[in-house]
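[agent] plan:
  1. take the single chain provided in the ticket
  2. run structure prediction with default settings
  3. attach structure tokens to the ticket
  4. add a short note for the reviewer (M.T.)
[agent] executing step 1
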Amino acid sequence: QVQLVESGGGLVQAGGSLRHSCAASGFTFGAYAMGWYRQAPGKERELVAAINNDGKTYYANSVKGRFAISRDNTNNTLYLQMNNLGPEDTAVYYCAKGTDATWYRGFHYWGQGTRVTVSS
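[agent] step 2 finished; step 3 output follows
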């Protein structure tokens, strides 16, 4: 079955950086788009970054220029590098598997989430 296991969350000061990893198994990783969602306290879950199977990327305006999504198809791992973090980035971050090769067709599996807290 599909498994997505995130790691890399934690507490960081404003202006700092964190890197999330997502170890994927149970499907042909390189064939699917992948994404990172986040859910802040009291807010709906939002897509912050996505990557197609061909490497094309999408970023939400709120993270553009600060976050970078990447994938290692050899090791079935998805990454999210987060730089210049601010308190508004405090959220639980979820790895997600796309329904097919392109991110805009949606996502249908999520990991358990990893919490990021940014202190000001």
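[agent] step 4 note for reviewer: The first strand starts at residue 3 and ends at 7.
[agent] ticket updated
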